[in-house]
Design goal:
The chain is an alpha/beta fold. It is 35% helix and 17% strand. Homododecamer.
């Protein structure tokens, strides 16, 4: 099983950028932990980060060609602005889980609306770096058709 992990704009700054909101974990640390979790779950993790909307759209569009089974994505600011990423998710029709470090519903009003979430099977938000692990576990459980809770 192949899982595509997509991280959007400014997430390369994790650990430095507003740690009171986003935590002290760096993106490489989060990805390393997710790789361990993916190995435990018997899947391969392909990770990608970009500050460029078009690069993210191109990657989503080519996901099936790359043999991807599902997507875990933190669209970051594109969550609230990108109809194009939403449309790419709709076009590939792969199961996707949206993930956020912070609780986007407890922040500024504009952050509470996600354009991309309606094209995902679920959203995990507000649990810091743990949000990523729980999103991955939920996606793999969905793909395996097993319940998430043990």
């Amino acid at each position: 099983m192949k899982i595509l992990l997509i991280n959007g704009p400014n997430l390369q700054l994790l650990g430095v950028r507003e740690p009171g909101i986003y935590g002290a974990d760096t993106l490489p640390a989060i990805v390393a932990h997710l790789r361990e979790t993916a190995a435990e779950l018997g899947c391969e993790l392909i990770d990608f980060q970009s500050n460029h909307e078009g690069d993210i759209i191109d990657l989503i569009g080519s996901a099936k060609e790359k043999g991807v089974d599902g997507i875990v994505m933190n669209p970051a600011a594109y969550t609230h602005t990108s109809v194009a990423i939403r449309d790419a998710l709709a076009a590939v029709a792969l199961p996707a889980v949206e993930v956020h470090l912070s609780n986007i519903h407890a922040r500024e009003e504009f952050r509470s609306h996600s354009l991309t979430a309606p094209k995902c099977i679920g959203v995990v938000a507000g649990f810091g770096a743990d949000s990523y692990e729980w999103a991955l576990r939920a996606l793999v459980a969905h793909l395996n058709r097993k319940p998430v809770l043990v």
